[in-house]
Design brief:
- This protein is α+β, with helices and mostly antiparallel strands and 234 residues long.
- It has one domain: EF-hand (Recoverin, domain 1).
- Helices cover 45% and strands 12% of the residues.
- The protein contains eleven helices and seven strands.
- A five-stranded mixed β-sheet has the order 5-4-3-6-7. Strands 1-2 form a two-stranded antiparallel ribbon.
- A hairpin with a 3-residue loop joins strand 6 and strand 7.
- The N and C termini lie far apart (65 Å).
Length: 234
């Protein structure tokens, strides 16, 4: 007899996401000398951060992991708490239910389903952009508004969609003639969209986008990601 790594048997592809969540939780949080199949129902948020980071880097195959501000956004999302500080979250524990059972407020999916879809999108279409730190990614709409509101018109950044699974959206600043500012979020791009036309080329196409936050001209930031055929023609 020998104990194997955890496996989950599924009968349909739509069970794949839940199966991955079960295997991840078991791999990350079970004790070495446990009774078979026994695993903690709650784990420290700090350990969850390490697990999500390792998973993200392994899946995307990047050396650029999650940052402190990413963990803060993910904590706000999984705990549905926008008043706590980063330090407050560090002392909390997260449950299996919060991870992959409870539906996120106002959404039709769990935290893990959302995170796994982001993983898949980044792995398939955004690896080089993420590795070049061109995607802020894990950031709330409210914080985007705070960052962009004092910037020149046309300043933009990239964030993962809150409302759609596996989508990346562009938030950019528009200024009115009276000097008032408004942040507009472009309809999220899915993996299917980005397989038709790359993110770099879409950004180049959008004339209202000028500088990647805080102040990098978009051609300088994304030039190496533009389609080489267009570059030759241009």
């Amino acid at each position: 007899q020998a104990l194997s790594l955890p496996i989950v048997v599924i009968v349909h592809g739509n069970q794949d996401n839940n199966a991955k969540a079960t295997v991840l939780w078991d791999n990350a949080f079970s004790e070495m000398d446990r009774v078979p199949f026994v695993v903690a129902e709650r784990v420290p948020w700090e350990k969850m951060c390490d697990t999500l980071n390792l998973k993200f880097m392994a899946e995307v195959q990047t050396t650029k992991g999650l940052l402190k501000e990413h963990y803060f956004f993910l904590a706000q999302k999984i705990f549905n708490d926008h008043s706590a500080s980063f330090e407050d979250f560090q002392s909390r524990s997260v449950s299996w239910a919060q991870f992959n059972k409870e539906i996120l407020p106002g959404r039709g999916f769990t935290f893990w389903q959302w995170f796994d879809a982001v993983l898949d999108l980044t792995k398939r279409c955004l690896k080089s952009y993420w590795s070049d730190r061109l995607i802020m990614g894990f950031i709330s709409k409210q914080y985007v508004c705070k960052l962009l509101s004092k910037q020149p018109e046309g300043t933009f950044l990239l964030r993962f969609s809150d409302s759609e699974l596996g989508g990346v959206t562009i938030a950019h600043l528009i200024r009115g003639q009276d000097g008032s500012s408004q942040v507009e979020n472009i309809q999220p791009f899915s993996a299917k969209d980005l397989s038709i036309r790359s993110l770099g080329d879409r950004i180049r196409d959008l004339g209202q986008l000028r500088n990647l936050y805080p102040n990098i001209p978009k051609d300088q930031a994304f030039g190496s990601h533009y389609n080489s055929e267009w570059m030759a023609a241009g």
